[in-house]
Amino acid sequence: MEENGQIKVLFERYLANECAPDQIRELLARFNLPENNDTLRNLITRHLESIDLDNGSAEEAVQQVYEKLLEKVTFEKDLDSAPRRFVILPLWTRVAAVWILLAVSCGVGGYFIARWSDAPLLKDTALALLVQTHTEVAGIGERKKVTLEDGSVIWLNAESKLTYPVSFQKNSREVSLEGEAYFEIVRDTERPFIIQSGKITTKVLGTSFNIKAYQADPAVSVTVMTGKVEVNSPESAIQIVRNQQVKYADGNIYKEVDIDAAAQIAWRNGKLQFRNTLLSDVIKTLERNYPVKITYNTNLSDCQVHADFDAVTPFENVMEMLSGSLGGTVTKLGNAQYHLDGRCNNIRTNTSYLEN
Q1: Per the record's keyword annotation, is Transmembrane included, yes or no (predicted)?
Q2: Which domains does the chain carry?
Q3: What are 214-239's pLDDT values in tens digits?
């Protein structure tokens, strides 16, 4: 409580133009702590609500805060000699609204805005503070359907999380994904749809596509079913269309054409389809769909699997099929723990085969 009280005092002094530079730096440092995010939100919200506007416009309220903060912007005298870095934070990171504005106004932490023309970006960030977000999570073996306020529909795969605004802003539609999801986006040429997933950003106007961005996977992939998609990484940007896929891994982005896009999204209909998929990746998928842990001999990691399963197939049946194709065995080690032995070969079963 004493900590929150000190933050409140500093914040009120800042709004009253009574903060010395060292106090602004202290305020910034306190707001940069995750445990102070709620305090920051409450202070900003109360201040915006206190501003007397004729039409009560939230956007105009943000404009007033924005202009007030810009009055305190002090650029370094020799910006050309200073390293120029820009902070890009997700829309729903509430602390960003004031954190960026204060950081820029103080020149703290080495973040600088080089031109006045860049300043409107700060207003957009502040406006984002007013956006209320919702998070939808699909657990192990779950699939969830989410309908957004613009009519777009998103299907979440197992162990995935989607964060999105309850109401989109007037110039863009932005969401965040961890895991895998299939998107059917309503076309809106005035508001591009943007998905942040790991280190890549996917931008569309209206199309259907799949994004797979599990943190445990080495690569992020985007696969298009209809329309056109633009994928941006820190290094480059690339556009893909139907039956094409982009993969991003280790700072490299590359495109694959003539892929089986339908197999990539079979999970949406309760199917697990593998097309020459590494066994190591198959195991990850199984662990996301069944509450189990699977170990296996490392010499099997590069075995390629071609198989089709229903997501409701009993796990023991799936493992029996895999071990049979490997010419090996599956051993239950304990509660929900299994070990897979075998070798890579071309033996087919009625649903799968493995090859090296």
Answers
A1: yes
A2: 2-128 (no CATH), 133-263 (2.60.120.1440), 270-355 (3.55.50.30)
A3: 999 989 999 999 999 999 988 889 99
